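FORM 12-B: Structure-to-Sequence Request
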């Protein structure tokens, strides 16, 4: 697993541990299911996006293409999209 995916999967699973530890379920690291649809997966991805992506750093990089931004931030492209959605959801720009 690449360094970028390692960071993402750990942050994603930490999100499950913090957000979803009250239902008795066990979550397992699986790089192929982390972006699966579903409420819990989206919540874990939002947690990972907020943990790994600094909003100011992201804004400084906007204008470039998504894959360059993702590579600069060392996160998957999908996480950049989620973080941008989070920012748009609570600020106007
Ligand atoms: Zn998950």
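FORM 12-B RESPONSE
SEQUENCE OUT:
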């Amino acid at each position: 697993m690449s360094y970028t995916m390692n960071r993402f999967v750990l942050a994603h699973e930490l999100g499950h541990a913090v957000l979803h530890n009250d239902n008795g379920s066990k979550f397992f690291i699986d790089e192929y299911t982390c972006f699966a649809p579903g409420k819990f997966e989206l919540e874990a991805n939002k947690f990972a996006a907020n943990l790994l992506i600094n909003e100011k750093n992201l804004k400084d990089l906007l204008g470039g293409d998504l894959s360059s931004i993702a590579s600069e931030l060392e996160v998957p492209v999908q996480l950049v999209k989620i973080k941008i959605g989070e920012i748009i959801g609570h600020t106007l720009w």
